[in-house]
Amino acid sequence: MLSEKTMQIVKSTAPVLKERGTEITVCFYERMFNAHPELKNIFNMSRQKTGGQPKALAFTVLQAAENIDRLEALLPVVEQIGHKHKSLQVKPEHYPIVGKHLLEAIEIVLGEAATPEILQAWAEAYEEIARVFIEIEKQMYEKAKRAGSWEGFKPFVVVEKRRESETITSFYVKPADGSDLPPFTPGQYVSVRIKIPGEQYFLTRQYSLSDVWNKDYYRISVKLEAEEGQPKGRVSSYLHEEMEVGGSLELSAPAGDFALSEESDKPVYFISGGSGITPVMSMAKTLAAKDSGRRITFVHAAKSETHHAFKEEAEKLVSGNQDNRLLFIYSRGTEAVSEHVINGRIDEDLLKSIVKDQDGEFYVCGPLSFMKSVISGLKKLGIPTENIRYESFASSLDMQIAN
After folding, report:
1. Is residue 29 among the annotated active site residues?
2. How far apart are alpha carbons 214 and 40 in whole angstroms?
């Protein structure tokens, strides 16, 4: 347990962390990677270049400082990060390395303001925070092992490659050793690790499992990261353009806390945008396969029909129950080809026309701006926060919108 004095010292550093946190984390990553270049096999180096990862860590450090006297308030975020760490195979031995270089970065950036008293308080605080992460992640690893999941990264082979839309391609993958695959919770993701020719280190990315579970194969669906004016995503472009049937890659066991409540009997609303449809498809197809009788409202927003993945799959799975509802919204003008296709965007008025069950369960996934808009709209309609579950492919720490 941290002393009252230690907690007060750490909390007193929050203002300067808010102002200079990213400067500290940029320094931290630079020093850590210089000392331990092997950790580049774990971290997404593209997010290092764009500044996304240093900003996310700076936010985490700030949240820790502000809540050091009530760390239990951070448990939902800790668990979300813990799933990511488990997927990337972060282990207890990594935490001392991070702590050492984080404290050095604080001392370097803050200079004389980083007094021995402050550094000692942060050393004690980091040890306690690391203990919480290690314990939660230990429980996750043990639970996965009991469920029959594998440890580390397992070799897989691509057995089918299917283009789903202009920007999304699915890969059907089987274990190279022919073993059966363990069940996963609909909504979860896997980490995909590959060694791309010309790259010194492994590259690892997370992709949602987009199909109902079966023991023979997993399906991951990958969006080609190619924003206008930006270089193509290194991994997504390699998978789209160079990975073929018979190709090899490695997967970690399924992880993630954006999970379908399979035992509930409440009406369920799936609201997705863009590639956010990938985990939603796994959830919706699982419900349909179980013939649970739960009423499904499936709403998906895309730029256009050519950008819309799984259109036929969604139509088929919702058609099994006359109480189910389906709506596709395209932001780029297109002629409506059926009663469930409209032009526009998901806004508050549209949500008001869709939502018929205040006690329903809402699963929301998509780009950050889409997430914020939809969740804000649902709250204005009186939907309780605990009924809204969400996943963004941005950093989880950018998604502080449910509070």
Report:
1. no
2. 33
